[in-house]
From TrEMBL, chains A, B:
Membrane topology: Multi-pass membrane protein
Intracellular or extracellular location(s): Membrane
Keywords, in A-Z order: Membrane, Transmembrane, Transmembrane helix
Molecular function terms from GO: transmembrane transporter activity
Transmembrane segments: 40-73, 100-122, 134-152, 164-186, 206-227, 248-269, 309-336, 357-379, 385-408, 428-451, 457-475
A Pfam cross-reference name: AA_permease_2
Gene3D superfamilies membership: Amino acid/polyamine transporter I
A GO cellular component annotation in the UniProt record: membrane
Region (Disordered): 639-670
Basic residues bias (residue ranges): 656-670
Name assigned to this protein: APC family permease
Species this chain originates from: Agromyces atrinae
């Protein structure tokens, strides 16, 4: 289902040319255009339609910020091309804790990217097909699962499948903006379906008006989300990586500004009225039952006509590019997870590539987290965006601050560089100023966003981020302590002596015989078979079989009056240890290897429990003798048969001196 | 949190005296009184208030059925006292498949017992504290989790904690019924708060009237749920088990009939009007926002006065007895699961008693299933009861049919019995008639219930039961096939020869040194250490450490150009096998033992992946050398230190001939 396993050498072949990197990384910031103008205008309209006259100024502020951030990240890509992005910059320049704050912010961010993009995508699908409205949450969850499945297949295949929608989105929205502006120019301005409805206005004090403007600006800043994606993905670019990444970033920035500005303008021209609560649209009777269509859908319907082919193309492209944006997070989250695991801040399991060279665990965790949030917040876009922006601006600010520190250090103690990579003092100063302005502006926005969004749901992010922070710090401390604990020091000495083998025997079955055979082959100094008697009847039968099979290894019966598998054995081991000193006792146990995941539910439970308890006894090691059930053939192409030794039947048997005699009862051969 | 582990010998001490068995097992059927009259009357009122005049007759039919079922089960307990209940009876008399149908029905049933009882319990809590209405589902889930936690502690403790509520419920409801009837007798009949509202009546055809009566009867039959609980719990009684169980059953039956009849009568007298949709109560304005209070709450408020102490006592006792009823299922489900596991129809993990002698896996599965259903159906009692009754009557009918078969066989070929257990032909004939009538009546009710409830949600049960049935049959077939596969036959022969040990070495750390030490102690014919080189730098360091530690075992470096841990090793093992024939290769790997569940997330992942792949190679066994991290001290009271051998430091070392030389670098001792 997720494709054949790929050998590691394919990794280089998975790298991205620019024309594929743009859709992969730029889809996130570009897709923001689908919701940023809508959220910006929606907040303004809380104050009434009169406030829309301020919209161009708010939008302009967002554009200025966007330019600053793009220019700042151009610097960051050059200075830190290893793909660590803001995390690496903050970690290296501001210390471990700042790095972890960024990491926590980014982790939250990636999850929110998936959640917001999918919620907005579904919103746009519903705008085209309102009859799907009751299945909003279900649709969103299905899309997350689909994205996870696609991403478990691998980067390159998913990028090819997803290259077209971004270009289609850019192209079709551009055509729409140009068409709409031309129509307005010739005096036939498009009119949105919601233009007829007035909006309930709240009465606002002067202070509240300022706050409303700030809130509107903060919501508009959702247009900046995803700009940092490219800085995290530099290693995925083809060489020259830095130059290609920088060019892609600039192309992306220019496109995003044009689309954002154009769409906001067109929405204002066509008088789209969009309310947080649809029933605040005065005059709309079906507000409780009908879904409010997204701003982009209303603009498209006004420009091209409702339910025309162009309308559906715009909606399809928007939905697809939003899903592609969610896909960005599926690229970034597992990568960040593996970087954190490598640095010891996350479980090492996150740095293990799966059969398809993907950090599968990261993909699964991301999908799960996104699904939970979508269900809890019922895929409500406006609420989700409140959670989104905080994380974004935390990492922006710390990343930029780290860059300022970086350039300051370059000024005082510049690194030695080769030929054309050398930077003049002037160049460093210019870079410093750029990042300083960037840090200042993003910090200001962070403060604005925090103040205006905190009570609207953003507090959840302020709970989650410290939790993640503490968890990562804890994991790091733990790995460090273990590392110290197992480090070899001068006092480490050796000397386990004595060698005894025990084969655990339940019933007379092939896996047990195989374990016995292997134990004998390993030529231990002494060997015995041990049976824990839970049932007299079964024990009697085993003894009979033992004789019948002509096994010369001594069978020791341990009685267990309380039907406990391990207690009598542990007692016996302790007695042996008291008698023989620190000998090593090797306990042989069969282990079933199965072909299907569900078979694992039906096997090995008791064996695992026994094993876990035995491993706690001094001087014990457990030897697992695999027994491949026939079903394992499905998975591994190997069967348990032929039995060990069977493949050599008829070969002359070399005599082995110390070896006890074990063979099947003699049978006349024909 | 769930108490200290209990030794197995305590099992007998956990058995129940009658005065504790009654609350444990009778709480389920008795608590049905809390919802059965309500559901019976509610369905009748769909046809309008006039239909209430038929209520006594419908209630009478339910009582007659209840008597029949109690008498039938009295027989069953005597004939099959092993606690298998309907499952055992159907399995032994009607064959494997009938047994599995009953098992599937019972499993669904136990889950529904928890769900319905908890939902009804929460409903009664909300009737006392209407402000809790918004948290209906959350409350229900919390109660399920609490019950699971209590049951993970063990039977006896939970029964003591829960003995009082059942007696309190019987006593307080009896007082209420007597008070209410006396008041009616002296002409001061209580009047329910809903008596003032009329009920919207549907226009019914003659056929619909008959169907409505049948539906009302079917809903009233929910009073019978749980009667079978005692027959499944006979082994939990003190000796004489059969007699004690039978007496408890009869006491329970009589009490249930009195409470059911009394409460129905009182509800009719006080004119409780209860509607499926609260807004069908004509005249009640707050129907959309206020919760409709349960029938028992309305009767209590009418009899004793609203918000009096007596009212709260009734509500508290009702809620508690319902939770206790849910507890019944927490006793029964895991027990049935273990019986099914013993017979090979369920994963063997269900038959493993946990540290507190409880089948913990069963408790957890039940709690999870109950929570899911409560969330999906939003703890809506009326819908849930539709799902409940089907399963109950499937097992009733098949159990009784099995008993008929049993008595028929007794007639034709009677079993030999000792003295007073011998049954006369007349006694057998009488028993046969009782169970035949029981089978006939429960089968009729099953048909009625199926017809009347199918479209009201019961179809879900008809989907679930076959799925469970097929799963159980599949599990059984699977275990049987595996059993055949591993059975020792005449062709089983042996002869693995050759003995080579490989110690996997990553970095120079104590766990690796311990593994090396144990491997040397086991005196293999040949031994080598193998390092998979993923990183030249690390390999170089290891080589240096190897010399520094003065280890005389050969260190083989396998290069892994593609950073794969297992592939080079597997290749090497295959080459060895091609060269040395079917030798046994023992691979030593350190295994971390940790003290907290969360530590398991941080360890052993890579080792497990490597182990799983190595176990697929011909002739390989894997030896796990445990390394107890310091944290394991928390759990097991044992530390990884002192190192193997350290506890004997200074002892004279016995010279061992074949053993390679390994020791720490010589240090001057002071």
């Amino acid at each position: 289902m997720i494709g054949d396993p790929l050998p590691t050498e394919k990794l280089e072949g998975q790298l991205l040319p620019k024309k594929l990197a743009l859709p992969i990384f730029a889809s996130d910031p570009l897709s923001s255009v689908a919701y940023a103008p809508q959220e910006l205008l929606m907040i303004l309209m809380i104050g009434g339609l009169a406030f829309l006259s301020l919209a161009p100024w708010v939008a302009l502020a967002v554009v200025v910020l966007l330019i600053t951030v793009v220019v700042s990240y151009r610097q960051l890509i050059k200075a830190y091309p290893s793909g660590g992005g803001d995390y690496e910059v903050a970690h290296k320049n501001l210390g471990e804790k700042a790095g972890l704050v960024v990491a926590a912010a980014l982790l939250v961010d990636y999850v929110m990217t998936v959640v917001v993009s999918v919620a907005s995508g579904v919103d746009n699908i519903i705008s085209a097909f309102p009859e799907l409205n009751p299945f909003r949450v279900e649709l969103a969850v299905v899309f997350v699962i689909l994205l996870a499945a696609v991403n478990l297949r691998g980067v390159s295949e998913s990028s090819k499948a997803f290259a077209i929608p971004t270009y289609l989105f850019i192209g079709s929205v551009a055509v729409m903006i140009v068409t709409g502006l031309l129509r307005a120019f010739v005096g036939d301005a498009p009119v949105a379906e919601s233009a007829q409805y007035a909006v309930q206005a709240e009465n606002l004090t002067h202070a509240a008006i300022v706050l409303l403007l700030l809130r509107s600006f903060a919501s508009g800043c959702s247009a900046l989300t995803g700009v940092e994606a490219i800085s995290n993905g530099v290693p995925a670019f083809r060489v020259p990586k830095v130059k290609n990444a920088q060019q892609t970033l600039v192309i992306m920035g220019v496109t995003a500004i044009l689309l954002f500005a154009g769409l906001t303008a067109l929405a204002l021209i066509s008088n789209v009225h969009y309310a947080e609560n649809p029933c605040h649209l005065i005059g709309w009777a079906e507000c409780a039952t009908e879904p409010q269509r997204s701003l982009i859908a209303q603009v498209a319907a006004a420009t091209f006509g409702d339910n025309t082919i162009f309308f559906f193309v715009i909606q399809a492209a928007t939905a697809l590019v939003l899903l592609l944006a969610a896909n960005t997070a599926f690229n970034g989250f597992p990568l960040l997870g593996s970087v954190l695991a490598r640095d010891g801040y996350a479980p090492k399991a996150l740095s293990t590539r799966g059969d398809r060279l993907i950090f599968s665990n990261g993909v699964l965790i991301l999908a799960l987290a996104a699904c939970v949030i979508l269900v809890v917040f019922q895929a409500n876009l406006t609420v989700l965006i409140q959670l989104y922006i905080i994380g974004v601006f935390v990492s922006f600010t710390l990343g930029q601050a780290g860059m300022v520190k970086h350039w300051l250090r370059e000024l005082t103690s510049p690194k030695k560089r080769k030929g054309d990579e050398r930077m003049t003092r002037a160049a460093i100063m210019r870079a410093l100023v750029i990042n300083f302005v960037g840090a200042l502006m993003t910090a200001s926005v962070l403060i604005v966003v925090t103040i205006t969004k905190f009570t609207h749901g953003a507090w959840i992010v302020f709970v989650m981020m410290p939790i993640l922070f503490v968890l990562m710090l804890g994991v790091h401390r733990y790995y460090r302590d273990v590392e110290r604990e197992i480090a070899v020091d001068a006092t480490t000495t050796f000397g386990a002596q004595g060698d005894h083998a025990i084969v655990l025997v339940g019933r007379m079955q092939k896996p047990v015989l195989k374990a016995l055979d292997y134990a004998i082959a390993a030529q231990h100094a002494s060997i015995e078979a041990v049976h824990i008697s839970l049932d007299d009847e079964a024990t009697k039968r085993l003894k009979k079989d033992w004789v019948k099979q002509n096994i010369h290894v001594h069978l020791r019966i341990l009685n267990s009056p309380y039907r406990d598998m391990t207690y009598p054995l542990i007692q016996y081991l302790k007695e042996r240890r008291a008698e023989h000193g620190s000998e090593v006792v090797t306990i042989y146990m069969p282990q079933y290897i199965v072909g299907h995941w569900w078979e694992a539910l039906l096997h090995n439970h008791k064996a695992r429990r026994v094993r876990q308890k035995l491993m706690l006894v001094h001087g014990v090691t457990v030897t697992l003798v695999p027994w491949l059930l026939d079903s394992s053939d499905v998975l591994y192409g190997r069967r348990s048969r032929p039995l060990p030794g069977q493949d050599r039947r008829g070969e002359p048997v070399r005599p082995v001196a110390r070896r006890p005699h074990v063979k099947a009862p003699a049978k006349p051969r024909r």
